[in-house]
């Protein structure tokens, strides 16, 4: 599981507002020291951290699995977020479109209606939890108080 990705951004508040409104991200308040250093957001069980720079240099893209495809496209349209023409993948019936955040970081929105199987070949249901899993600090680790 990927714990976090890091993106270059030029404006913390603009980025936070965009990710919250467009993708439903949750702001992670990590205390004054970390909050001063970077913006941290959570989408599902993954985190997006940021590096503040006056001239961001986006590279590549990352993809987010979308639970309700029609709702996501309606949200993009309502918020007037430019996006590529959605496509349907012939091999799976899945959907895909691309958007860019305010600093030009490319995000692929996908929906894979394929399902999952465990190592025994049994179908596994994945519970959709918008808050996802969260990391918890184990006792005995971390700063000494």
Architecture overview:
- The chain is an alpha+beta fold and 145 residues long.
- The protein has one domain: 2,3-Dihydroxybiphenyl 1,2-Dioxygenase, domain 1 (Roll), CATH 3.10.180.
- The protein has 3 helices and 10 strands, in the order E-H-E-H-E-E-E-H-E-E-E-E-E.
- The chain has a 4-stranded mixed β-sheet, with helices on one face. The protein has a 4-stranded mixed β-sheet with strand order 5-8-7-6, with no helix packed on it. It has a two-stranded antiparallel ribbon with strand order 9-10.
- Strand 9 and strand 10 form a beta hairpin.
- The chain starts with a strand and ends in a 21-residue tail after the last strand.
- Belongs to the glyoxalase I family.
- Pfam families: Glyoxalase (PF00903).
Blueprint of the fold:
Blueprint: E1 4-9, H1 12-23, E2 26-27, H2 32-37, E3 40-43, E4 46-52, E5 61-65, H3 69-78, E6 87-88, E7 95-100, E8 106-111, E9 116-117, E10 123-124
Parallel strand pairs: 1-4, 5-8
Antiparallel strand pairs: 2-3, 3-4, 6-7, 7-8, 9-10
Domain VOC: 1-112
Protein name: Glyoxalase domain-containing protein 5
Pfam family, one: Glyoxalase
From the helix content, strand content and strand pairing, which structural class follows? Answer: alpha+beta
Number of discrete domains: 1
Q: Termini separation (Å)?
A: 30 Å
State the shape: globular
CATH architecture: Roll
Overall mean pLDDT: 87
Percentage of residues in strands: 25-35%
Radius of gyration, in angstroms, nearest whole number: 17 Å
Number of strands: 10
- CATH class assignment: Alpha Beta
CATH superfamily: 2,3-Dihydroxybiphenyl 1,2-Dioxygenase, domain 1
Supply the number of helical segments: 3
Assign a percent range to the helix content.
10-25%
């Amino acid at each position: 599981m990927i714990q976090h990705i890091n993106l270059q951004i030029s404006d913390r508040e603009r980025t936070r507002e965009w990710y919250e409104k467009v993708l439903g991200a949750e702001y992670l308040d990590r205390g004054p020291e970390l909050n001063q250093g970077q913006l941290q957001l959570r989408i599902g069980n993954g985190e997006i951290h940021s590096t503040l720079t006056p001239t961001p240099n986006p590279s590549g893209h990352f993809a987010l699995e979308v639970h309700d495809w029609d709702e996501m496209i309606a949200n993009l349209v309502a918020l007037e977020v430019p996006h590529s023409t959605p496509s349907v993948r012939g091999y799976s019936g899945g959907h895909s479109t691309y958007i860019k955040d305010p600093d030009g970081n490319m995000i692929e929105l996908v929906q894979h209606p394929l399902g999952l199987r465990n190592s025994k070949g049994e179908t596994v249901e994945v519970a959709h939890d918008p808050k996802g899993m969260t990391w918890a600090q184990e006792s005995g680790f971390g700063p000494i108080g």
